[in-house]
Amino acid sequence: MATTHNKTKAFILLTLTVSLPSVIIIYSMSKSNPTANFRRINPRDSISIAATTDSTNNGPPFIANIRPFPPNKRSQVVPTIANRTIKHSTNCGSSVRVVFLPGNWIDATDSGYQAQNCDVPCMYTKDTSSSAVKSADAVVVYLPSHSKHPDNLLKKYRIDSNKVLKVGMSMESIRSHPHQFDYLSEYDIEMSYRMSSHVPDPYFTFARGKQNLLEETNSTWKSREKAVLFVARNCKSNSQREQLVKMLQKFVRVDSVSSCLNNKHWPSDIPRIDKRALLRRYMAILAAENSIEDDYVTEKVYAGLITGAVPIYYGAPNIDEFVPSDSIIKVPHPLTKSGVKEVAERIERVFNSEEEYNRLTHFKRLGSYEDRFLEMFNFTRIDVKCRLCQKIMSLKCK
After folding, report:
1. Which pLDDT belongs to residue 209?
2. 229 and 332 assigned to the same domain
3. In a domain, 374, yes or no
4. Of the residues 32, 51, 68, which one is the last residue of a structural domain?
5. What is the pLDDT of residue 336?
6. Burial, 327: exposed, middle or buried (Cβ in 10 Å; 0-12, 13-18, 19+)?
7. pLDDT number for residue 38
């Protein structure tokens, strides 16, 4: 049935959940601009699409807010944010302005806004002056540094909590910072290492360009030290990894070159800032997390995979989702003498067999990532700041 509209602009909000066996291509086209804007979307992604149509001017292209479906049977230590009613209304077509409050690790200017190259207009800053916060669409609070009610913090910076979206951000484990998610329900967006968050920010990402697991190491099995490297300064971990080192040392050689359980000097010919150069000398690395919890997979395991040092991994129970298949040696949790002894026997096989070492580093010789790994991390090809702006834009457009 045809309907006549007097308004020249119409706003359309579509929310699509896509789960198809092939790649989806989303495009936008207007009468005044017949050129389509194409964007490839991973078939496993959950997609929110906001579009505007304009009978007189070119409307902005479709905006896709992309995040992966949370893996099935994921145990959650704390609940994620529920759908909340956004109290404020903003112009959907304007740029997104984000203020990162002190405590965040994001590299940003502290004087005015800077632009991020995204598919949505994205501006961000660490500037907390009145002029900057007044024009902000969202503020980002680093939860480990500010675990209290967010409104108290926003008042400090003269920010009206009813006029901005509140983003709770964290890259720290729950056990290290047990109260960081106490007020998570007061936030509109969660941005964290947890894959169930609105804007997941895992430690492995394609966007930053420095984590190529397929990197050529130029080190052979014969040239590597038949020992496990351990690098850690914190000797009071929640995971009791120090106990693991002591237990493992009863069966195999473990070189601790930093302050925790130190038994070997850092090589004089390698700068202390060049950990990867040191890793290329060793057959294995003890990649032991500070905390044991789902999704908390830090750079430790990836440093080993990049440099060809076989990771002896102690950490997230769901680690298999985050690394290439059959590429690590897992230490069972909780620690037992028999479990550690079995791990030591596997390490010895790597020390004594080039074939075993090659089997665990097979992904480097393939020259490409397996489909499962790509499906897990393809969304990280979009920088996390862009994905945050996408999410904010989708909420603004509501």
Report:
1. 76
2. yes
3. no
4. 68
5. 97
6. buried
7. 27
* Number of domains the chain contains: 3
Residues 123 and 175: their CA atoms lie apart, in Å, by 33
Residues 178 and 247 in one domain: no
Do residues 300 and 361 both lie within one domain? Answer: yes
pLDDT digits (tens, 9 = 90+) for 268-309: 999 999 999 999 999 999 999 999 999 999 999 999 999 999
Which residue range is the domain that position 324 belongs to?
Answer: 225-368
pLDDT tens digits, residue range 59-94? 333 233 333 333 433 333 444 454 444 444 445 667
For residues 237 and 337, state if they share a domain.
yes
Q: How far apart are CA 390 and CA 119, in angstroms?
A: 8
243 and 346 share a domain?
A: yes
Q: 136 and 240, same structural domain?
A: no
Q: Do 363 and 291 fall within a single domain?
A: yes
Residue 222: phi and psi, rounded to 5, are -70, -30
* 69 vs 239: CA distance, rounded Å: 28
The pLDDT of residue 207: 92
Give the mean model confidence (pLDDT) for residues 356-376: 94
Same domain, 229 and 361: yes
